[in-house]
């Protein structure tokens, strides 16, 4: 006995769809936010990023007398160079924090940088410069503030940040957002600080992520977004991958046969 082709194709398509589907709850972020709409919360986990050994710092010094300030601006003689890339030039304009936590500046000698914030280091350098300059203005910023995003994101890789106040949500956004197969309940952050390595998992489906000390990122943090089981199945089972490709084809064939049967 021959079975009708249309019901068979319909059943095959339904089986294909069910085996590859991802539930709605697995795709939603912050579904468990408990704060009433319109209510505000004080930010208690605001992070002051501390300078560490091996950081690369840009120090700009200005004064009423520009020529007197010029020796303190490392790489100022390269300002007219236009052929080299901006990033390569910056590598020669920065002060590298050594293993002991110091930077070595002209006339000022070794200045303690590790353990300080950008603002506190600016204040310290400004005080030392008053011996040589009148009303000095000091600006310090990171040249190598970067985080690495891996796993189930659209564009994994290393992200160089111009701003040192970066949240995990901003980093994921710069990486193209999470894929449909991302495990939003278990996002791993690996952090190295003061010679120690720490690991922390964040659940992006609850509001606890906003109060975590890992919500604000530090330089050289690594974010890994692990896959859900549906993703693992498509990679490990070749048959599952075939079904994923057959799904759209079966749907088109089913539609064509259905339209043809009406005529």
Automatic annotation (TrEMBL):
<dbReference type="GO" id="GO:0006811">
    <property type="term" value="P:monoatomic ion transport"/>
</dbReference>
<feature type="domain" description="Polysaccharide export protein N-terminal">
    <location>
        <begin position="48"/>
        <end position="142"/>
    </location>
</feature>
<comment type="similarity">
    <text>Belongs to the BexD/CtrA/VexA family.</text>
</comment>
<keyword id="KW-0812">Transmembrane</keyword>
<keyword id="KW-0625">Polysaccharide transport</keyword>
<dbReference type="GO" id="GO:0015288">
    <property type="term" value="F:porin activity"/>
</dbReference>
<dbReference type="GO" id="GO:0009279">
    <property type="term" value="C:cell outer membrane"/>
</dbReference>
<dbReference type="Pfam" id="PF22461">
    <property type="entry name" value="SLBB_2"/>
</dbReference>
<keyword id="KW-0626">Porin</keyword>
<keyword id="KW-0732">Signal</keyword>
<keyword id="KW-0998">Cell outer membrane</keyword>
<dbReference type="InterPro" id="IPR003715">
    <property type="entry name" value="Poly_export_N"/>
</dbReference>
<dbReference type="InterPro" id="IPR049712">
    <property type="entry name" value="Poly_export"/>
</dbReference>
<protein>
    <recommendedName>
        <fullName>Polysaccharide export protein</fullName>
    </recommendedName>
</protein>
<keyword id="KW-0472">Membrane</keyword>
<keyword id="KW-0406">Ion transport</keyword>
<keyword id="KW-1134">Transmembrane beta strand</keyword>
<feature type="domain" description="SLBB">
    <location>
        <begin position="146"/>
        <end position="225"/>
    </location>
</feature>
<dbReference type="Pfam" id="PF02563">
    <property type="entry name" value="Poly_export"/>
</dbReference>
<dbReference type="GO" id="GO:0015159">
    <property type="term" value="F:polysaccharide transmembrane transporter activity"/>
</dbReference>
<dbReference type="GO" id="GO:0046930">
    <property type="term" value="C:pore complex"/>
</dbReference>
<keyword id="KW-0564">Palmitate</keyword>
<keyword id="KW-0449">Lipoprotein</keyword>
<keyword id="KW-0762">Sugar transport</keyword>
<keyword id="KW-0813">Transport</keyword>
<dbReference type="InterPro" id="IPR054765">
    <property type="entry name" value="SLBB_dom"/>
</dbReference>
